[in-house]
Design a protein that fits this description.
824 residues; alpha+beta; 27 helices; binds zinc ion
Length: 824
């Protein structure tokens, strides 16, 4: 599963929270007991679009596990007209709207199989199965239906033991109206047409057992694009007219299948691989076995392709076909065995495809995402069984931090041993449920290494090391000394870390390296060198997930910025020089902005110049606009210039923005204009609101810019674009920007509370976050409604965090009146 907000809408908010991962009502979660093992599920389904209804016949083949198996509990939420029969004669059924209990008078002998057939209907399901079609925002929106099973939503459209430990073969026979296509897991066995009823029937079969949450259905009027990997069909389904965009987005899939199959030594396991571009999909993508669903937002035109790629999303969902689908976490507390792997393998494909610099820069993004969650929201162990809603686990710890832990693991083991470990783990556990111990044991058997101490620090406990590093040179004795302190606070959750750390000293052009175990609070390392080093590096390969405070001279940082062979070393130097902000430092940054070879470093250099806030830094950025052509760097320069409200900046950007080749650079220029805070720019920005663009990116930028102008007219525009009738991304941007005006404004608060009823999940989440940013308890009753019940897990978590944030804000603002309902 790939998170939605970050990739496909304008940036999300920094959440701000009170430091606890667990919500009230959290408890320990364990995989449930089973009386029966599910061997096969056959679903015969018919979809009725106008009534948003599914009629189903689900036949489950069960094998008794327990000695006295007399009953089976199916998860089945809000089903209607439920009728049960069984191959073992009469059954009793009881159904409370959530659990369907089927029982026999006499026990089914252990190992014996029995078929249970459940006929049922689902009308307007709230979760699991989603119908989309034309609406006010888009009267031409195609009709589609798609499912989203992870984490526990498939129980809303078919009865099953809905837990990842269950593994079964599945079969779907789906009847849909002409001219729709139905895509599901496994091989397509047959299609047929009923001319009289004007329907089509698709029969799919998944022969390799998988977990019920991975069963999928995607229905729409699709064009099918056929590709292949060897003999395996690779299929893309999209709405007619988007063929070129689809090929642009998914075209590297066979290359990725090849890369993963060969590197892992475990070939792609399924009969086909399909990707459906689903409209209004609520995630970036979902790795349903052999049948991934992707958001249609990832399809893009040629202009977007200049500096946007769907490869990370495509690689992520594809990697799950091994990590998640073929080998599945036994219960959700070990979900990192799915998500951290998909996140890391997404980066590994980038390393293979685009090189080491791009790979390391992506890992750095991952690290920053994790650091911000750790700092602003909470800290937790990657593996924890103590939580409230399963979806709480799908956070930056599970995705990003886990990917960095795997990167450390790969470096500790060495490449050869790492890939052998992956191969052992996958081959040993294919089609099985796994826990973290299975990974540890596979590594130990493949390499002889017991990585338990490493896992204890990084997986079963929370946090990361913060190092303070001090270096000095004794010229007479020719001795370099490095003192390393672990400065992070230690407690039960985070201890002192024990890690091998490499120190590098460059004397002339020769580099000397030493590797030490850093495991104490305070350690001193001394080395005799042939001469004084011009570069001193702590962890020169940037392997360890860490924060470092390393004091170096200005000259040394400048040398590092210009000459460190590692992109992250140069980036580190850029940050340090930005903080120094001396004339020499700014000159070095200005030079690096023009001459640096890797765009990611240029981006960080621009960011460093943004923070300096001096005339020289502004000049350097303006000069950069004249000389630098990489669209991602131009985007960063505009972002940086947003920090400089100056007539020259405004004039320069106005003359350039509409000529930008890249949507993203143009959008960044528009946002930077907003940050000029010049009311004279209002009508220009209003003009941009009329412009259509890929995923509404320019309109979003204009909305944000108008918000940043902070004019009274801004509020009306933000309110307008937050209402239904505009794209979700435009609405979310408007809602978020209302946050800057809302504190103490009743009209905005009321407007947002009304928007809570909106049917769009992502819009609702944006509203809840914004309401959470005001310390106004009157929103609490409305928000509380979204903290429980049959709702999307992200919605519940956001609502609960918002309520907690409001209460915390109230406590700070009105320390004595914290329990009163209204404002004093
Ligand atoms: Zn995922």
């Amino acid at each position: 599963m790939n998170r939605f907000e970050e990739q496909f809408s304008c940036k999300g908010h920094a959440a701000g929270f009170d430091g606890r991962f667990t919500l009230s009502g959290s408890k320990s979660h364990y995989a449930p007991d089973r009386t029966f093992d599910t061997r096969h599920i056959k679903l015969v389904l018919e979809l009725d679009f106008p009534r948003k209804m599914l009629t189903g016949v689900c036949t489950t083949t069960l094998a008794a596990l327990a000695d006295d198996a007399t009953s089976m509990n199916f998860d089945a939420v809000n089903f209607e007209q439920v009728r049960v029969s069984s191959s073992r004669g009469a059954v009793q059924q009881s159904y409370d709207g959530r659990k369907l209990n089927v029982s026999w008078k006499t026990p089914v002998p252990r190992g014996t199989t029995v078929d249970v057939t459940i006929r049922y209907r689902v009308v307007k399901p709230k979760l699991g199965l989603h119908f989309v079609g034309p609406d006010r925002a888009d009267p031409r929106k195609p009709r589609q239906a798609w499912t989203q099973g992870e984490d526990e939503y498939n129980r809303h459209w078919f009865p099953c033991h809905d837990a990842p430990q269950e593994r079964t073969t599945t079969e779907t026979v789906i009847t849909v109206p002409e001219p729709f296509t139905a895509v599901s897991n496994g091989a397509l066995l047959q299609t047929s047409k009923d001319r009289r009823r004007k329907t089509r029937t698709y029969h799919w079969k998944q022969n390799v057992p998988h977990s019920p949450y991975l069963v999928s259905l995607a229905v729409g009027e699709f064009t099918e694009i056929k590709d292949r990997w060897g003999k395996v069909p690779v299929l893309y389904f999209c709405q007619p007219g988007r063929e070129a965009d689809t090929h642009r987005a998914f075209g590297k899939t066979p290359q990725m299948i090849d890369f993963f199959s060969k590197r892992l030594g475990v070939p792609y396991a399924y009969a086909k691989y399909s990707q459906v571009a689903a409209v209004d999909f609520i995630y970036g993508g979902m790795e349903n076995t052999s049948s991934t669903t992707q958001t249609a937002l990832t399809l893009h035109d040629e202009r977007a392709h200049l500096d946007f790629s769907s490869d990370p999303l495509v690689a992520h969902e594809l990697a799950h076909q091994w990590f998640g689908d073929l080998v599945t976490c036994k219960d959700w507390s070990h979900a990192w065995l799915n998500e951290s792997f998909a996140t890391y393998f997404e980066a590994l494909f980038k390393e293979y495809d685009l090189g080491h610099d791009e790979f390391m820069y992506e890992l750095r993004d991952n690290a920053e995402a994790y650091f911000s969650e750790d700092k602003e929201r909470y800290r937790r162990p990657i593996v924890t069984k103590f939580y409230k809603n399963t979806n709480d686990l799908f956070d930056r710890h599970l995705y990003e931090k886990g990917s960095l832990v795997l990167h450390m693991l790969r470096n500790l083991l060495g490449d050869k041993a790492w890939w052998r470990s992956m191969n052992t783990y996958l081959r040993r556990h294919r089609t099985q449920g796994v826990e973290t111990i299975n990974l540890l044991n596979a590594i130990q058997d493949a390499t002889g290494k017991n990585m338990r101490p490493f896992f204890d620090q990084w997986v079963f406990k929370g946090g990361h090391p913060e190092y303070k590093v001090r270096y000095w040179w004794d010229a007479r004795a020719k001795k370099a000394s490095v003192r390393v302190l672990q400065t992070h606070g230690t407690n039960e959750e985070t201890g002192l870390f024990s890690m091998p750390v490499t120190f590098a000293f460059r004397i002339g052009q020769a580099v000397k390296r030493f590797t030490e175990t850093v495991n104490k609070k305070d350690q001193l390392f001394t080395y005799t060198l042939s001469g004084e080093p011009n570069l001193v590096l702590f962890d020169p390969d940037h392997v360890i997930l860490k924060r470092v405070d390393f004091t170096k001279t200005e000259a040394m940082w400048i040398t590092q910025l210009m000459q460190d062979s590692h992109v992250l070393g140069r980036i580190q130097a850029a940050g340090a020089l930005g903080r120094l902000a001396s004339p020499k430092a700014v000159r070095a940054l200005a030079l690096a902005l023009m001459q640096e070879k890797f765009w990611g470093v240029q981006v960080e250099v621009a960011g460093a110049l943004a923070k300096v806030e001096s005339a020289a830094a502004m000049e350097a950025l303006l000069q950069g606009l004249k000389q630098v052509s990489h669209p991602k760097v131009r985007r960063a320069i505009y972002d940086a210039l947003g920090n400089y409200a100056h007539p020259r900046v405004a004039t320069e950007i106005q003359s350039l923005f509409s000529r930008e080749e890249s949507y993203f650079a143009e959008a960044a220029a528009i946002r930077a204009l907003g940050r000029q805070r010049d009311p004279g720019l209002f009508s220009l920005l209003k003009g941009v609101l009329k412009r259509d663009s890929w995923n509404d990116i320019l309109r979003c930028a204009a909305i944000e810019a108008i918000g940043a102008l902070k004019l009274p007219e801004s509020i009306e525009i933000l309110k307008t674009y937050s209402r239904s009738g505009y794209s979700s991304s435009a609405r979310m941007t408007a809602i978020r920007n209302l946050g800057a005006f809302g504190q103490g404004r009743d009209d905005i608060q009321q407007h947002l509370i009304r928007l809570l009823a909106d049917p769009y999940l992502m819009v609702k989440i944006a509203v809840i976050r914004t309401l959470g940013s005001f310390a106004d308890e009157r929103a609490t009753p409305a928000l509380m409604k979204y903290t429980t019940g049959d709702l999307d897990g992200r919605l519940k978590r956001t609502a609960e965090e918002a309520v907690r944030k409001i209460r915390k804000g109230m406590d700070q603002e009105f320390p004595t009146a914290k329990k009163t309902a209204g404002r004093p």
